C-alpha cells in the first residue's frame, strides 16, 4: 500500500512539475491562469464583501418604499382632516343649533320660558308648568334634588331625560296656532300625552290644552 502511495505521489509531482514548466514557457497559459485566479479572487471578495453591501442596499430600498407609502397615507389623512375642518367651519352655526336643541344639561327654565313666550304670543293663559325631579343650579353631586336618569328612545345610552308638563287655556284658534309653533320649537319634546278639555270655573267655555312628555339632554361625562 505504501508503494502505491509513493507511485501516486511521483505521478502528481511529475504533473505539477510539467505544469510549472508549461506556465513558465507559454505566455497564453500564464495569462489564462492569472485570469482564472483573478476571477476566483473577485468571486470570493464578491461573496464576502460585496454581498453585505448589496443586501444593505436592497433593505434600504425596501425601507424607502415603506416610508413613501406611509408618507402617502399621511398626506391623504392630512387632506381628509383639512376637508373635515372645512365641513366643520361651514357647519359651525348648525352645531350651535344642535347644542341648543339637545343641551348638555337639563335647563328646564329655558324651555319653560319658551312655553311662556308662545303662550303670550297667542294670548293663552298658563294654568301650570311642572317638571320632573331635575337639578337647575349647582354641580351634580351637591346637596339638592338630582336630575332624572331616564333614557329616551332613539338616543345614545348616555342620554338622560326628565318629565315636563304644561297646561294652557284659550280659544280653539289660539290653541291651534300654539300647537303649530310648539312643534317648531328648537328643543324637541318626546310627547307622551296630549289632551284637550273644556275648562270649568271662572274661564269656563275655554279649551285647556295639556302636553306631557320628556326632554332629553346629553351630559358631558
What does this structure look like?
- With 221 residues, this protein is an alpha+beta fold.
- The chain folds into two domains: 84 residues; 116 residues, Alpha-Beta Plaits (2-Layer Sandwich), CATH 3.30.70.60.
- The chain has five helices and four strands.
- A four-stranded antiparallel beta sheet has the order 1-2-4-3.
- A hairpin with an 8-residue loop joins strand 3 and strand 4.
- Helix 1 crosses helix 2.
- The longest helix is centred in the N-terminal third of the chain and has 64 residues.
- The N and C termini lie far apart (98 Å).
Annotate the secondary structure layout.
Elements: H1 2-25, H2 27-90, H3 92-101, H4 108-121, E1 125-131, E2 160-170, H5 172-182, E3 190-198, E4 207-217
Antiparallel strand pairs: 1-2, 2-4, 3-4
Helix pairs in contact: 1-2
Structural features:
rod-shaped, 221 residues, 2 domains, 4 strands, four-stranded antiparallel beta sheet, alpha+beta
The second-level CATH architecture of the largest domain is 2-Layer Sandwich
Class based on secondary structure composition and strand pairing: alpha+beta
Uncertain spans, ≥5 residues at pLDDT below 50?
140-149
Read across the widest sheet, the strand sequence of neighbours is 1-2-4-3
Strand content range: 15-25%
CATH topology of the largest domain: Alpha-Beta Plaits
Radius of gyration: 47 Å
Summarize the amount of helix as a percent range.
55-70%
Could you tell me the number of beta strands? 4
Question: What does the main sheet amount to?
Answer: 4 strands, antiparallel
Distance between the termini: 98 Å
Tally of domains: 2
Q: Treating each run of at least 4 consecutive H or I residues as one helix, how many helices?
A: 5
**Cα shape:** rod-shaped
Q: What is the H/E string?
A: HHHHEEHEE
